[in-house]
Amino acid sequence: MKKYYTRACNFYYGINANLLIKKKLALPLCGNKNIAFDKVEIFIRNNKKVSSNTVGIKEINNLSISCKNKVKQDLKKITLKRKNFLINVNFLETSIMGILNLTPDSFSDGGKFNNSKKAKAHISNMVKEGANIIDIGGESTRPGSKTVSTKMEWKRIKDIIKNFNKNQRKICLSIDTRKSEIMIKGIKCGAHLINDVSGFNYDNHSLSMLNKYNVAKVLHHMKGTPNTMQKNPKYKDVLLDIYDFFENGLKNIDNKKVIIDPGIGFGKNLKHNLTLISKISLFHSLGLPILVGTSRKRFISQLSGDNDSKERIGGTVASVLFLLSQGVQIFRVHNVNEVKQGILVFKKILSNFKN
Fold this sequence. Notes:
By secondary structure, the protein is α/β, with parallel strands linked by helices. It folds into 2 domains: 2-79, no CATH class; 95-352, Dihydropteroate synthase-like (TIM Barrel, Alpha-Beta Barrel), CATH 3.20.20. 36% of the residues lie in helices and 21% in strands. It is built from 11 helices and 12 strands. The chain has helices at 14-22, 65-79, 116-129, 150-167, 180-188, 206-210, 238-250, 270-278, 298-304, 313-324, 336-352, and strands spanning 2-13, 27-29, 32-46, 49-56, 95-101, 133-137, 172-176, 193-196, 216-220, 258-261, 291-292, 330-333. Strands 10-9-8-7-6-5-12-11 form an 8-stranded parallel beta sheet.
């Protein structure tokens, strides 16, 4: 059985995008008239075989009936303006999710902020630097990490979570956890977003519990568990397999306040990560905002070799800007100020560029 997938491509920005949209020579990406596209890459999956071809938007009517109908359905979702369902987040703009790991063993900042005074100061700094969302976690999910008890995880984060809205009323609070008990406690303390790296597969009660609350969710892809995910991960086709994962996962979620995250580095090797980053715009055809976390990830060191550094700021910013050029709306990062600076400069250059 054939299945078709549609990826927007051949992008234009700023003045160029606006002009092409007005002339009906290009379409807006996610309702954003500052990013336009005039071609689509169509992937055709037929059992184990995958092929693709790129066509202009004016050529879509020349496709076979089944392919044309699917592409037109996808285009409606690709061009649709995303509804804003998070506090302090506008999906027509770029948002930054600042990371706060209250753990002793996270891969790059374990133990750095795991006392109340340091954690509160770090939250304040990230907000001042431009974070729209703060993602708070009490369990490391780095490659090879072990599961911690629910009691220990809650103990690490509860004071910060309980006091968050007193100090940061206008900032979106995200809870980074795989456990339904932590999720519900977080929601009762005012959390706006649940970010589960397991894609709600670790805890069988997660979705049934969450469906009682009108809370936003990140549907994140991970292959395996943190302890096993980097042990020779394999896919039939990483891009299309993860698309199918999202498509199936969305069927089990009651409300549509969902953000998708392909999970860079979570059960992916270098080739998988690069494929996802380079073709990330495929996921716009799901009609949902996209979140990506490349901050300080191992693929940066694999690509930079002798030029690797502890915080990998250069590689993080480079990957963020490439993803931004494909319409990704949210970036999960450690170094908020440096990423914000890169985004501001990059956007200004794009908006003033004219062919």
